[in-house]
Amino acid sequence: MKIRLLDPETVQKIAAGEVIERPASVVKELAENSVDAGATRILIELQEGGKELIRVADDGCGMDREDLELAFLSHATSKISRVEDLDRVTTLGFRGEALASIASVSRSVEVYTRPRTSSRGTCLRMEDGRAVEVREAGCPAGTSIAVKGLFHNLPARHKHLQSARQETARRVGLVTEMAIINHRISFELFSGRRNVFRSSRSDSWEGCLVQVLGLEVVKGMVPVFGRGEGVSFHGLVGDPSVARSAPDWIFLYVNGRPVSSRALVSSLREAYRTLLPGGRSPVAVISLQVDPSLVDVNVHPTKREVRFLQESLISELLIGSVSRALRSRFESKEPRASALPPDLKPPAPGSVQRTLSLDDGRLSLDLAREPETTEQSPGLKIIGQLLDLYILAEDGGGLVLIDQHAAAERIRYEMLQRRFRERTLAQELIAPLTVELSPREQVMLDSWREMLQEMGFDIQPFGGNTFTVRSLPATGCRLESPEAVHAVLVDLFNMGRVNPDSTSQDEVLKLLACRGSIKSGRHLSQKEMEGLFHDLMQCDSPRTCPHGRPTMIFIQSSELERMFGRR
User: Fold this and answer.
1) Contact, 113 vs 62, CB < 8 A?
2) CB 3.0 to 4.6 Å from 52: which of 48, 80, 109, 423, for a disulfide?
3) Distance of CA 90 to CAs 59, 76, 79, 492, Å?
4) Please, are residues 314 and 308 in contact by the beta-carbon 8 Å criterion?
């Protein structure tokens, strides 16, 4: 196969694909330009999740005609002028690639812009990356950019975009991140005619955080500060009682830029290590100011990933500062049971074996009944438990090992299937619960609403970010805390696209069965082990869990004799 040089148009589209991965990339690049332009108000409009139209308008400094004609050329930027400037980048954008990349993968781009000091504006219209019209136009001060037909010339990329609602949910998360750190700017995001996110200008980020996280969460947050050589940070960290099942409410910023950093997330979890059960993530907002020469924001075209020159120093500083802030908070007040996560509350007398938290998955199979004496299979004898994971049993022909989680999952799955067929899955709550959902989760809730109703959830808006839960699936386990309900919803939303077919319904039932089943590390009494085996043998498919893993393994006595050299 001969090696050949690619033509400039192909090269440009390949490069554009790295910068513009999906509609969220367009929103990010345009909104960051608006922030750099000194805007106080940014309006974002989407049609079909951004696949048909993305419009970003601001009241920033605007551009004159000369700058506008240069703006869509590759590597044209007002942010840097020489290679040394890369070590001192303080703006969100600097590459000079975004506008050219957007234009090259869109059917059309239309720009209206006017500097604040001018009475005349300019309109630029581009089609397939080429300018077709530049003219004088009347328009407000600032800049408005409309992008239509994204990826129309890249069918493979367009094909792999998600549904309009899921793409919109991605935009909400991105705009939320930007609104928190840029709290002196008001943001509005519209999907069609519907306003899906709005933040008001505020002197402090607490005002925006109340809109995103809710008043009760923000009231329980404590300030943190830290300073080291070339780095300082400030932020807010949440009470352990509002911890999440995913790190979706950890907001990290470096020099005003939203970033992803496993090292920083791990540091936050380490600071909470003695306060949270495994698998839980704190609520935190951390803004770091790092000497630009000590951080590389040029790792990837998306500028989402950063590389610290002194990562271990920053991690140690963050762990120490957050730990001290949490310790001083708890030392300044008397402990209250209601402030503890459900997992850490002292159990009521006599309830140790029958009442355990959903959050760590350690649940008895049916909390409405005491373990009953069961009639074992002829010749079967429960010996005990191994590693708090496997049940050991003996029968006349050898040894039986039962995976307690897989067995409990099979039992609960068939129970849920039966209740779903009989339309008895929904269980009304005596006292409705309230849960806080982020703007992104609210969009996902709309997408999942029909499926959730079929599965027994009745969730209605209550005001702001608060939703009322009136009924839940009768799973045979306790979903009685807002944290537990939220954790289940997050798991469902993380499944991605929802389809109203039997496959999706079955996947939801499997997830509900898994979420509430006995996990490893749960010690079982003799009666509980006997009850588990009895219920398993009543199932239609007792040999495997819903995911196809075996629930039990049989080792014949002849095999044991061979292993010990008796044969």
Assistant:
1) yes
2) 48
3) 21, 17, 9, 39
4) yes
Separation of alpha carbons 519 and 514, rounded Å: 9
**Tokens, residue 87:** 């070590």
Q: Is 337 left (phi over 0), alpha (psi -120 to 50) or beta?
A: alpha
Cα separation, 445 vs 468, whole angstroms = 13
DSSP 500-554: SSHHHHHHHHHHHHHHTS--TT----HHHHHHHHHHHHTSSSTTB-TTS-BSEEE
Per-residue burial over 372-392, b if 16 or more Cβ lie within 10 Å, else e, is eeeeeeeeeebeebeeebbbe
Is the CB of residue 87 less than 8 Å from the CB of residue 81?
no
Report the pLDDT value the prediction gives residue 262, as an integer from 0 to 100: 87
- Number of neighbours of residue 159 by Cβ within 10 angstroms: 8
Helix pair 439-454, 164-181: axis angle to 10 deg: 150
Buried b (16+ CB within 10 A) or exposed e, 75-95: eebbebeeeeeeeebebbbbb
The overall average pLDDT reported for the chain is 78
Is the pLDDT at 350 greater than 80? The verdict is no
Phi and psi at residue 144, to the nearest 5°: -130, 125
Determine how many CB atoms are found less than 10 A away from the CB of residue 511: 18
Q: Is 90 exceeded by the pLDDT of residue 114?
A: yes
Look-up of token digits 């910023």: 253
- Decide: 186 and 162 in contact? Cβ < 8 Å: no
Q: Kindly list the distances between the CA atom of residue 13 and the CA atoms of 75, 279, 321, 352, 386, in Å, as whole numbers in the listed order.
A: 14, 41, 45, 61, 58
Largest CA distance in the chain: 99
* Tens of pLDDT, residues 44-56: 999 988 889 999 9
Cα dihedral 125, 127, 133, 134 sign: positive
Beta bridge partners of 150: 106
Q: Give residue 354's pLDDT band: very low, low, confident or very high (50, 70, 90).
A: very low
pLDDT for 519 beyond 70: no
- Residue 83 predicted with pLDDT over 50: no
Structural domains in the chain plus CATH codes: 8-202 (3.30.565.10), 214-331 (3.30.230.10), 381-553 (3.30.1370.100)
- Tokens matching residue 449: 């609403």
pLDDT tens column, 156-185 = 777 777 777 777 887 888 899 999 999 999
